[in-house]
Amino acid sequence: MSSLKAVALCCSLKKSPAPSSSELIAREILTALADHDVEGDVIRVVDHDVRFGVSTDEGDGDEWPGIRARILGADILIVATPIWMGQPASVSKVVLERLDAELSETDDEGRLSTYGKVAVLGVVGNEDGAHHVTAEVFQALNDVGFTIPANGATYWVGEAMQSVDYDEAGPKPDTTGAATKSLAANAAHLARLLRASRYPPA
Fold first, then answer.
1. Which among 14, 3, 74 has a CA at the least distance from the CA of 47?
2. Could you tell me the CA-to-CA distances from 155 to 34, 41, 122, 150, 165 in Å, in that order?
3. What burial class does residue 80 get, using C-beta atoms within 10 Å of its C-beta: 0-12 exposed, 13-18 middle, 19+ buried?
4. What secondary structure does DSSP assign to 5-31, as a single string?
């Protein structure tokens, strides 16, 4: 079976080349996935003109269709988001709203275009809320057809009200690294199963 493909959507509020903890954890997930013969890259969403909306193409230069094509061409979607005010970053919410359009995109047998694709999550922040963010994002991704693996999220949360970000922190905790490795192993395993055996018709 050929290598699996992954695409990571970095939902940082900062445009490149500004350092991004969300991009760092996305790349760490990709590195862990590479151990399971998964190739992939990162898209920093704010570097692109992604319009507000709930369609596959909002027209007038909207760059979501190109990102969407890369999602549909991948086996695994990684969403990496910071926590702001206990919530997923606004950029990640725009991504989820755009993915809502997939509810209308089905094959001849009624399967969503996202069926058979695995979604995982990386979360970073300087406040509590990683579990809340995971719940919100995973529910939305599952609603639009993605499959969530066991232990499909990894996160790092620094001390509340402090200024040290994940990309500036010293040695990373073993718990985050172990979670990332489990995420990668389970995501690759599930993606191969779904590639070999499709979901039944709707």
1. 14
2. 19, 19, 6, 15, 12
3. buried
4. EEEEEE--SSPTTS--HHHHHHHHHHH
Residue pLDDT, tens place only, 13-70: 999 999 999 999 999 999 999 999 999 999 999 999 999 999 999 999 999 999 999 9
Nearest CA to 137 out of 22, 3, 6, 19 is that of 22
Q: Which domains does the chain have, with CATH numbers?
A: 4-162+169-196 (3.40.50.360)
pTM above 0.90, yes or no: yes
Host H or E run for residue 71: helix 64-72
In degrees rounded to 5, what are phi and psi of residue 112? -65, 150
Which residues partner with 158 through β-bridges? none
